[in-house]
Amino acid sequence: MQPDNFTNEFFGIGIQNGKTPENLGVLWRSAQNLGASFIFTIGNRYAKQSSDTHNAVKAMPYYHYDTFDDFFKHLPKGVRIVGVELDDRAETLESFHHPRRCVYLLGAEDHGLTNEAIEKSHFLIKFPSTLSLNVSVAGSIVLYDRTRDKPRS
């Protein structure tokens, strides 16, 4: 994971305990198109599928961690975890100032993030919605919001 020498910004996005490989493929394509430095999974492995039409696996680094603890131990220094979760403590995406160096962590639609992931996230963000979104859609929205001209923390 090499930061951009001019802005010293980099970010990755990943899914904890992803439900389907198709969701990862769609998120991977969005990550590639919206400037992510890498993508990762915790608990499930990536398998190439039709939703990865740009063959992003060859274009950006992919990391897999068996457990959240393994992921947490291997975070680059100074990187902040931004958990995406429908939680009362979460800040709305519209008002959130994205960190310069971070990882966005999403949970599967049916279970969300684990309690450990929520507790160890530096920030929690949510959408103004009462229902869960598809994980690849939610991740794509977060990545798009990062591309907007908003202040960084």
Rg (CA only): 14 Å
| Helix-strand topology string | EHEEHEEEHEH
Mean of pLDDT: 85
Q: Taking strands numbered 1, 2, ... along the chain, how are they ordered across the largest sheet?
A: 3-2-1-6-4-7-5
Describe what this molecule looks like in 3D.
Helix 1 (21-33) packs parallel to helix 4 (135-147). Helix 1 links the parallel strand 1 and strand 2 (38-42). It contains 4 helices and 7 strands. A 7-stranded parallel β-sheet has the order 3-2-1-6-4-7-5. The model is unreliable at 1-6 and 47-53 (pLDDT under 50). By secondary structure, it is of the alpha/beta class. The chain has one domain (10-99, 114-129, 139-147): Alpha/beta knot (3-Layer(aba) Sandwich), CATH 3.40.1280.
Furnish the topology, listing elements before pairings.
Blueprint: E1 10-16, H1 21-33, E2 38-42, E3 62-65, H2 68-73, E4 80-84, E5 91-92, E6 101-107, H3 115-120, E7 123-126, H4 135-147
Parallel strand pairs: 1-2, 1-6, 2-3, 4-6, 4-7, 5-7
Outline of the structure:
This protein is α/β, with parallel strands linked by helices and 153 residues long. Helices cover 25% and strands 22% of the residues.
